[in-house]
Amino acid sequence: MYIFSLIIVGLGICVYFAFLSPKPIGKSVGWLIASLIPAVFGNLLIVSSNTETSTLIGCYCYYIGMDLVMLALLRYTREYCSLDQNKRAMDIILCILLAADVIQYVCNPFFGQAFTLEAYTTPMDTDFRMIPHIGQYYHRILDYSIILSVMGIFLLKALRAARIYAERYWVIVFSMFIGTAWQTFSIISRDRIDKSMIGFGAFGVLVFYFTLYYRPMRLLDQMLAGIASRMPEALFFFDASDHCIWANEPAMQLAGGVEKNFEAVTENLHEMFGDLRSKGDEWTEQFVLGEKRNPKYYTVEKHTVTDEKGRPAGNFLNVRDTTEETLRIKHEIFTATHDGLTGLYNRESLYSGIQKLLPQHPDVSYLIIFLDVKNFKIVNDLFSNAFGDYALRCIAQWIRSQFSANSIYGRLGGDTFGICVPANEFDEAHFEEELGKFVVMEGTLEYHILIHLGVFRIIDTRLDVAVMFDRAHLALSTIRDEYQKHVAFYDNNLRDKVLWDQHISSQLHEAIETRQLRPFLQPIVDRTGRIVGAEALARWIHPTDGFLSPGSFIPVFEKNGMIVEVDRHMWRCSCEILRDWKSSPAHRDLFISVNISPKDFYFIDVLAEIKGLVKEFGIDSQLLRIEITETVMMTDADERMKIISAFREAGFIVEMDDFGSGYSSLNLLKDMPVDVLKIDMKFLSKARDEQKSQTIVQNIINLSDDLGISSLTEGVETEEQYHMLSQMRCRLFQGYFFAKPMPLEDFESFCNKHIA
Ligand code: C2E
Ligand code: MG
Ligand code: MG
């Protein structure tokens, strides 16, 4: 009785822990063990009772309990043996049969078809014995069939599984067999106390342990050994006295070990990696072996193994050939930090390289050089991109040859390179000479490439490298259009100029809005001295910087493109004046010439813009004269000719400004669709020989006359010049001799006085 109670308690504990188990099969185990409890309890009742009723209850508990055991056993088997979840038809049939068994026990009190109890007397008291009938046989056949099938399944699993795995199946088969055999023996011996319940209990505990807690150590050992020998990495195991006791195949290959001769392995390892024992118990280190051209990279790890008491039991080395990986990473780092075309550093790594270099040599003075190729686009367009690439590689090669290892250099992008060089290693004269003769040759192709260097001397090493390069670039921009000079240094004047440029550029909009920027008019007179018109010249009356002449701001805006804003404003103001003059008899016939920068043609549709203004202000297009310079014709000559012709067709008079200042070719003149030639005395007086310049002016006037172009001389400063030019049959005159450019009001009263 006590034993049965103990079994129940034991099973109860197992059920509790099984349900707590995180393993998915925990529930099935729990149900199986729980289902054993009613059967054992039934037996406990049978053993302990001496009345017919309690014996009967015990029997029902026992037999129905067995049906529950069968049900739980089926579920457990399916999960433990990983049977196909889809084939459940058999389960359903068995469940129905088990349910039928339960029903027939429920009917037994009425029909007595399963069993009856027979009282018999022992020398001590009266007891009851179960007399089986047909229903009881059904129950036994059903339960035996199930249990035998389950055993069969486990047996098959045990036989089919690998030996190490089979263990877990054999234990269950064996315990089931003992339990069943014991039970069979109990039935046959008709023993009143079913001792096979002890087998049930043991079965439950075994199932609990083997399913949920048992870890086959032998399996683990074998697995680990299998993994170790199949590992692609070399593994060496050493005993506590550092003798190699085992090495896997790659390890044997690496250390050139002969089969099972682990002593040789230890020696070879020593030769390859030096004394590894002295490095401690746990470490990882990279080794480079082999030739420099073809190096082999290894990562070696050492780990110490301790016994259960924490004493060192041995150690193992893991040697990984990381050559491929290391080379790949090195290659990736190279491509990330270098320019693919030239193999020089790219911008980012050059900047960071300079940032590291400067603090390393605080006593060395360095220069930052910005190297730029002039008109590199033309090289590409003229030859091919392939030749352009080749030229860039040649420049890179040239840089390598010119700068020592104390310098650092790279490609900033496109056709620009950057260099940081110790100041004492940079000889300006040498570079002027070198760059003067720089040619790129490919086969028979030889191309002179114009290279400029902008140089910035680093004073404050904390300055951002990008700013240093900006300054070097700025220096370079001062010689960008020069062919003889190749090296330019950044200095404070340059910086001041940049600051000035920024200062006025940021204020242009306001200056236009508040009319700080406005036209001054310079009279234009004819041969009789009568004022026929004026040139509108920009003046900036700055609130703090005072009077600014165009020389201080026009070139700045020409460069940054803001000249468009200035010119638009000047055109509009001139149109306003012309509109106001329409109602003034003294001024209504006067024209105003406005300047058009070559940049305007880049950015806006000059023709449409000016035509729009003329229309808006309702003025005669004859009165708004257009001054263009020869440089307008330097690019897109055909297109520009068309625009100028269109101006003329629209009734405007087009003047060629500053003729004689630049590349003026008389040749160009015959194709130029202009009405007036503005000859600048300033340029002519530059010629030392007075006589010579007179001849030139005379010829230009004659030629323009022949071409039907009228001439205007500007920069007339003296009476003699005026007379001389009149004699040369020049038609119009402009210059300080008549008047300087003046504000509108002054100009108007000047006109009035003149007429009076
Ligand atoms: P420009 O168009 O050739 O204008 C004539 C320049 O010669 C003016 O200089 C004028 O003041 C100056 N000048 C006139 N007579 C004499 C003289 O007898 N002797 C000397 N030495 N100089 C004389 P300014 O006003 O300083 O303008 C310089 C240049 O700035 C102009 O040359 C023109 O190219 C440009 N500019 C002026 N205003 C504008 C404008 O609104 N837009 C554009 N795009 N350029 C302008
Ligand atoms: Mg002009
Ligand atoms: Mg001019």
Can you give me a brief rundown of this structure?
With 756 residues, the protein is α/β, with parallel strands linked by helices.
Provide structural commentary.
This protein is α/β, with parallel strands linked by helices. It has four domains: 2-214, Rhopdopsin 7-helix transmembrane proteins (Up-down Bundle), CATH 1.20.1070; 225-327, 2-Layer Sandwich (Beta-Lactamase), CATH 3.30.450.20; 338-490, 2-Layer Sandwich (Alpha-Beta Plaits), CATH 3.30.70.270; 502-746, EAL domain (TIM Barrel, Alpha-Beta Barrel). Helix 3 runs antiparallel to helix 4. The longest helix has 29 residues, at 52-80. It starts with a helix and ends with a helix. Ligand C2E binds next to strand 16, helix 18, helix 19 and strand 20.
